[in-house]
Amino acid sequence: MTSRIPGRLARRALGLAAAGLVAATGLAQAQPQGQSPPASYPNRPIRIVVPFAAGGGVDTVSRPLAQALSGILGQPVVIDNRPGAAGNIGMEHVAESPPDGYTILHSNSGVLVTNPILYSNTRARPSRDLLPVGQVTTDPLLYIIPASLPVKDLREFVAYARARPGQVSFASGGAGGVTHLVGELFAIRAGLQLIHVPYRGAAPALTDLIAGRVQLMFDTLGLVQSHQGANSIRLLAVATPERLAALPDIPTAAEAGVPGAEVNSWQALMAPARTDPAIVAKLTAALKQALASPELLRLYAERGFLPTFNPPEVVRDNIESETATWTEVIRQAEIKLE
């Protein structure tokens, strides 16, 4: 597949309910095991590092979560946006921070799973340098086309693209991100030759999709919910194993004729490796309590996010299994990033 640089969903029921110096053997080994945390933890503000700019999807989830955690933990929880290098700067910062529970990462699965595959120069490796605190949301991805495209379902889109090899493009919010990789996975499973067009974020990609400059993109409920009633876009499928309760009439990609293109996109909190297990357990309990808050659930539903608490071991297993999946996709698509 080829790439070029351009010129330039939604309610869900509210019941949804590190390490100073870098050792030669890895960041996780740079900090010795500490003593048991003081009973007063936390006794000062906690920073949640978001490895993206303010206003993006992770940031939008993180800010109300920080408020909820502050009330539960009895200390201010502040957001520290550290964008850059596709999220690697923020991830590395947390991995290299003292494992004392006062600096944690809120990131998406793209940074935690695919970045270590795509960027060989990334100093931090989540499996080695970070500990899961818990999953925060599930972010289902949708197959989105402009309403002007003369196809009405995914089968017709596949036929349309197959008849125009190398002429149909899909947009993403950036090279190497999950919205890029799901497009590559779809093309592989459907046997299509699509052109990848990376943008600097999802918003400009959606603008060009609506204008018909690109023919397909993949993104979340939250991005497109305001456009559903405007007849400017059409949703062909969801990239999830099952249909979404919020979109019961939209089929899965497998139902629509493209099996094997299921994708799990999610967000999670992570702490520096070697953080005391008692601190991680306290943060996990606070996260679980926050995600049961009716107010937080309401806010997330309004913004198209699906709160999904999962404990650390589930996050760890997801990172491991998805790393294997995306390693193969990246190999087949011959994606190379610096």
Break the fold down into its secondary structure elements and pairings.
Blueprint (H helix, E strand, L loop, with lengths): L1 E2 L42 E5 L6 H17 L3 E5 L6 H8 L7 E6 H10 L7 H4 E9 L2 E6 L7 H9 L5 E5 L5 H13 L3 E5 L3 H9 L5 E5 H4 L8 E6 L27 E7 L4 H14 L3 H9 L3 E5 L1 H22 L5
Helix pairs in contact: 1-9, 3-11, 6-11
Structure description:
It is built from eleven helices and twelve strands. The chain is α/β, with parallel strands linked by helices. It folds into two domains: about 45-140 and about 265-335, D-Maltodextrin-Binding Protein, domain 2 (3-Layer(aba) Sandwich); about 140-240, Periplasmic binding protein-like II (D-Maltodextrin-Binding Protein, domain 2, 3-Layer(aba) Sandwich), CATH 3.40.190. The strands form two sheets. It has a six-stranded mixed β-sheet with strand order 1-8-7-9-6-10, with helices on both faces. Strand 2, helix 1 and strand 3 (about 75-80) form a beta-alpha-beta unit. Helix 1 packs across helix 9 (about 275-290), helix 3 (about 110-120) packs across helix 11 (about 310-335) and helix 6 (about 180-190) packs across helix 11.
